[in-house]
Amino acid sequence: MNEEKYIQALRNNPHGIRNIPNPTEAMMLAAVEQNGMLLNYIKNPTETVVEAALSASPRAVQYVENPSAELLAALVKKDWSVLEYIEEPSTELVALAIEQSGWAIKFAKEPSEAVQIKAVEKNYDAIQYIAEPTEAVQLAAVRENYQALRYIKGPTDAVEAEAVRQDPQAMRLVPNLTKERALKLFSVNSYVLGYVSSSVGVTKDDLEQTIISVVSQDDIDESYLRGLLTNKTFGGRQATWQIDLLQVIEQQGSRQAKQILIDEFLKY
């Protein structure tokens, strides 16, 4: 069979390259242009054949001996998931991949904390691919999306607080909620009460004491207090919790808290 017939046969069935001894470059190209992964069955491919194979299937890089840094960078820029098939990818390659998707962190070996933070800032759920993320990494993830909490085993108090600060719905992802933890998180975002079951045992006195401890602070979180003052769960006759916030702040609030109170009510 002459070369042209081999090429025609390979166009119909590129896998036939496995059974051809000493194929010509044209034969190799006929096969890999259709299925780059067939590079695995070609001995001593030319540079042209390698380029054609990678163009068709970037994952075929796993069959390239000693690929250059430039080639690897070009492939990763084209498809970040190629990182999976690169043995011991460099820090530069990992960074290139993470620029496209934070999920690329799962193919990095012992990534630095800074790299992990970049990954979760790109895709918050990339934290599921990080073994034992530090508190800094956890915080970066929940700041992007509170739902990152679902992928964190044993989050610290600071991480849970940051999650509910972003969105009170994060309370749904706080496991084994106790009264003490519920009150701590209430001191971060008053709207979490909507997600606290009565079985937790939070009382009016518990809430009032927590509010006093917060509003008495000189460096009170302004956004927290403004949220508390507009939370319809408190104050009015139809409110769930009959706590007079104005009175509490006037009697127990710091100067800063009283100023925020005045400012808030001048809006209306």
From TrEMBL:
<protein>
    <recommendedName>
        <fullName>DUF4116 domain-containing protein</fullName>
    </recommendedName>
</protein>
